């Protein structure tokens, strides 16, 4: 059912729109979905997930964007990596020690049907 690949994108400045994300990532292939999350980060930065139609497109996006693209309003380049997949052993709920916001983002990636405002794992204490 999902033949493509999902990427985690971190370091988005507050107020980044889905269109801005799509415009940056469409250069590497067919963007099927952008799932933008706001809040829950102590730094105030946002994150999102970008789903590509093909795995190769996602690889090209990582190579082209990760550590290279700085969006307006940000001081550091975007972090782009493959999103954790269910069953991978990473980003499991209830293990908030020392993993920081990436764990919350990975948890939300596994539960995209749940609205962010209702998802208790959206804010994981950093420790």
- Please compute the radius of gyration using only Cα atoms: 14 Å
Beta-strand content estimate: 15-25%
Strand order of the largest sheet: 2-3-1-4
End-to-end C-alpha gap: 37 Å
Mean pLDDT: 75
Order of helices and strands: EHEEHEH
Task: Classify the helix fraction into a percent range.
Answer: 10-25%
Low-pLDDT runs: 90-127
Question: Strand tally, please?
Answer: 4
Largest sheet: 4 strands, antiparallel
Number of helices: 3
3D shape: globular
Q: What would your notes on this structure say?
A:
By secondary structure, the protein is an alpha+beta fold. The chain contains three helices and four strands, in the order βαββαβα. It has helices spanning 18-25, 55-65, 101-110; strands at residues 5-12, 31-37, 46-52, 79-82. It has a four-stranded antiparallel β-sheet, sandwiched between helices. The chain is globular. Residues 90-127 have low confidence and may be disordered.
List the topology elements:
Elements: E1 5-12, H1 18-25, E2 31-37, E3 46-52, H2 55-65, E4 79-82, H3 101-110
Antiparallel strand pairs: 1-3, 1-4, 2-3
């Amino acid at each position: 059912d999902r033949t493509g690949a999902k990427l985690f994108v971190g370091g988005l400045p507050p107020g980044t729109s889905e269109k801005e994300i799509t415009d940056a990532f469409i250069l590497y292939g067919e963007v099927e979905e952008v799932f933008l999350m706001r809040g829950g980060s102590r730094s105030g930065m946002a994150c999102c997930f970008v789903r590509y139609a093909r795995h190769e497109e996602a690889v090209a996006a990582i190579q082209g964007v990760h550590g290279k693209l700085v969006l307006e309003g940000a001081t550091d380049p975007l972090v782009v990596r493959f999103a954790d997949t269910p069953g991978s052993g990473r980003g499991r709920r209830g293990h908030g020690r020392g993993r920081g916001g990436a764990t919350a983002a990975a948890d939300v990636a596994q539960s995209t049907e749940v609205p962010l405002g209702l998802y208790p794992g959206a804010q994981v204490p950093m420790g």
